[in-house]
Amino acid sequence: MTNQNVAVRGSRFFSASALLIAALVVLSFPLSYFIPLATGSKSFSLLHHLHGLAFFAWVGLYVIQTRLVRSGHIRLHRELGLAGVALAGAIVPLGLWMAVSAAASRQAMGIARPFEFSLYNLIDIMVFSFAFGWAIYEASRRIEWHRRLMFVALLNLFGPAFSRWMLKLPLPFPWVDMSPNLLADAMLIALALHDRRQRGRVHAVTTGAALVLIPFHMVEPLIARSTVWNNLAPSLFGFG
């Protein structure tokens, strides 16, 4: 079987899930960004716009990339991969900048734990960077590893985006804080089912991501509210 046939084989799940996740991402921002921006009811800094542009562009490019593989346009898929690397290179520093800016704003407002949500920002950026970097390394080596690592990178953008809706639900702590990432993790279960149908077994990346991310996302809210983290975070983010 050629590399192109390997890439196309099983690509339906990734193209379909990409469309679903992208739609949910876009639907996560009307109240917090799109409507206030259109009506002028809230002002946004240039950082907000740049961060949002890079974020939406990467998700949109991911959708295009999965569609290209699905239709067999592997060469164009690889050429556009350079744009994905450039966007990822923008997302990481912009994400860190946004995390620092948000923490400073919360601190200025006198919020008791201004660095609580900074943990989520830091972990999401770290996991995205790790998964994306590893995926690039595997792009010409192991296609099945590459596509699943890219999927994991996407999920670490989806969880924070969908939190705009999940945090509005009347859920008690820690469920309200862990629910966005656990919803994203549910897509790993869907990927595991796909692996079983397509391959007869769950892929190592799928298993590893589920075993690491799901348990961590369940305890993450407790760490974020802990005294240890809130004492350590200011120095990590340059406020020490």
Number of DSSP helices?
10
Quick check: average pLDDT?
Answer: 90
**Alpha-carbon Rg, integer:** 19 Å
Helix percent reads: over 70%
* Largest sheet entry: none
Structural class of the helix and strand makeup?
A: mainly alpha
> Secondary-structure element order, as H and E?
HHHHHHHHHH
Count of the separate structural domains: 1
The shape, in one word, is globular
Taking the alpha carbons of the first and last residues, their distance comes to: 56 Å
Number of beta-strand segments: 0
Low-confidence stretches: none
Portion in beta strands = under 5%
Layout: helices, strands, pairs:
Layout: H1 3-8, H2 11-26, H3 30-39, H4 46-70, H5 74-108, H6 118-138, H7 143-166, H8 175-199, H9 204-224, H10 227-236
Keywords:
240 residues, mainly alpha, 10 helices, 80% helix, globular
